[in-house]
Structures are given as C-alpha cells and as structure tokens.
Amino acid sequence: MSKGSKKAIDLLNDPVHISFYQMALYPNNDDLLLPYRIFFQLLNREEISTIKDNKEFWITCCKFFASSPDNKIGI
C-alpha cells in the first residue's frame, strides 16, 4: 500500500471524519464526497464508487464503515 493510501486511511479514521460520516444528515456536496469516491476506487469497490445518487452513495459508505471492526478502515 502506498504512503498516499495509508495517509488517506489515517485521514478517514480521524475522529473528526468518523463523527462526520455518522451524522444523520448526508453531505449533498460533490466536493465533500469526492475523497470517499476516490477511496472506494482505490479499494476497487466500483459498485460503491460509481453510485450516482449522493444520498444512496452516502448510505452505502456509512454501511461500509459501520461494518468495519471498531468503525475503522484499513489494515
């Protein structure tokens, strides 16, 4: 895994981001969702990264993160 990928995982595991994706409201701004789309592309999870509807994409992201041990991602 590249240093950039590890840094992205560290950023997504940051408590600020964890509370962010656990919010009841979903971000409706493409710029806010872009890092998550890139992350899922790096994971080769095209079934998630290519979801067009922002709300559906966000719900899928939250389900993915919630299913991870300790609500964290990475190795």
What is the gist of this entry?
By secondary structure, the protein is an all-alpha fold. The chain has helices at residues 3-13, 15-21, 30-42, 46-49, 54-66.
Architecture overview:
The chain is an all-alpha fold and 75 residues long. The chain has one domain (3-71). 64% of the residues lie in helices and 0% in strands. The chain has 5 helices and no strands. It has helices at residues 3-13, 15-21, 30-42, 46-49, 54-66. It is globular, with a radius of gyration of 12 Å. The model has no long low-confidence stretch (mean pLDDT 75).
Q: What labels would you give this structure?
A:
75 residues, mainly alpha
Helix/strand-derived category reads: mainly alpha
Helix residue percentage: 55-70%
| Integer average pLDDT | 75
Q: Which shape, going by the Cα principal axes?
A: globular
What share of the residues does DSSP label as strand, in percent? under 5%
- Tally of separate helices: 5
Counting DSSP E segments of at least 2 residues, the number of strands comes to 0
